[in-house]
Design brief:
By secondary structure, this protein is α+β, with helices and mostly antiparallel strands. Helix content is 35%, strand content 24%.
Length: 331
């Protein structure tokens, strides 16, 4: 832009170009710059209007013109105006809806670039959590849901997190695929996958699994056994079935196709397809997967799944095959 620009020219550039620097949700707004008298002078206020919006923030432009005269970089100034306006919009809407003033720390939640390394996922039963899922960012998978959240803190006691509401996709200006990509990369870092040999005791008893994580060992003691897939924290471990390459790693060590029995949100059973396992262990897994032993908040799925080297993906077992398996186990 040529030097010697007048303030009116600057305002014209803002009015013409500001939407190009705003997030997607603002792209269909009507740009309006209003001159307001204050004392003996005037100020120019930028507002971005939508028909359904009850109120919009206004931002004074005169100081941005002064800043422009110091750098002569219009794109830089427009980016700054857009970011400041976005923050004002968030602050106003949150205060109108909740009466709560957004803190500087909370404002960071609305910045995807700052949050993307903290986004993880967990699995939960879809039907048992319909009310929660209506407002929470998630993706449905069979009869369970992959729910996204932000890790807020981590210490020796565990991890605290904040669920992500659906509206954050618009606030962030990203797609669900972008959120899922970040969560798929981050979750194994916070919740490293673990594969244990199923013990003689209850699968929920810590003494009921061996101390060896066979995903780290890279080999299995006996490929004919049943194994518990979870994470090293043994909490929310069923999500490991969605980790990239984990199921293929198990297949490579086992050398055969296997069933995935969803036990709870904390763990699943990995069971070879070509061999009957110990009856009491299978009965326990079947009863738990039939939701007869668990409080509802721990339930994950009623779907028996399988992983094959041909499909290279987790698929639900056909109903007729599932009934045959159950009948065989009950004999």
């Amino acid at each position: 832009m040529e030097k010697g620009i007048r303030y009116s020219d600057f305002l014209g550039q803002v009015e013409k170009r500001i939407l190009d620097f705003m997030p997607e949700k603002f792209r269909d707004c009507r740009v309006h710059i209003e001159e307001i008298e204050i004392g003996e002078g005037t100020i120019e206020i930028l507002g971005l209007f939508k028909d359904e919006a009850p109120a919009v923030p206004g931002i004074s432009l005169r100081n941005y013109f002064k800043e422009f005269l110091g750098c002569w970089n219009m794109d830089k100034i427009l980016k700054e105006i857009a970011e400041d306006y976005r923050k004002l919009d968030i602050e106003m809407r949150v205060e109108l809806e909740t009466g709560h003033k957004v803190t500087e720390e909370e404002m960071e939640l609305f910045d995807f670039e700052k949050m993307k390394d903290k986004i993880c996922f967990r699995l939960m039963n879809y039907n048992a959590n319909r009310d929660f899922l209506e407002i929470s960012l998630h993706e449905r998978c069979m009869d369970f849901a992959k729910v996204y959240y932000i890790v807020e803190a981590e210490d020796e006691k565990g991890i605290s997190y904040r669920c992500i509401p659906n509206v954050m996709l618009d606030e962030w200006g990203v797609t669900l695929n972008e959120v899922d990509k970040a969560a798929s990369e981050n979750t194994p870092k916070y919740f490293a996958p673990a594969l244990y040999e199923a013990g003689e005791l209850s699968l929920f008893c810590e003494n009921g699994v061996s101390a060896v994580n066979y995903l780290k060992a890279g080999r299995l003691p006996d490929a004919e056994n049943c194994f518990v897939l979870t994470n090293e924290r043994k909490r929310l471990g069923a999500g490991a079935i969605m980790y990239p390459e984990v199921l293929q790693q198990i297949w490579d060590m086992m050398g055969k196709d296997f069933y995935v029995v969803p036990i709870s949100i904390d763990e699943v059973i990995i069971m070879p397809k070509d061999r009957m396992c110990k009856a009491e262990r299978i009965i326990e897994a079947k009863l738990i997967s039939d939701n007869k032993h668990l409080p509802s908040k721990y339930l994950l799925s009623n779907t028996l799944m399988e992983y094959t080297n041909e499909d290279l993906m987790l698929l639900p077992v056909q109903r007729d095959v599932k009934e045959k398996i159950r009948n065989d186990y009950e004999r």
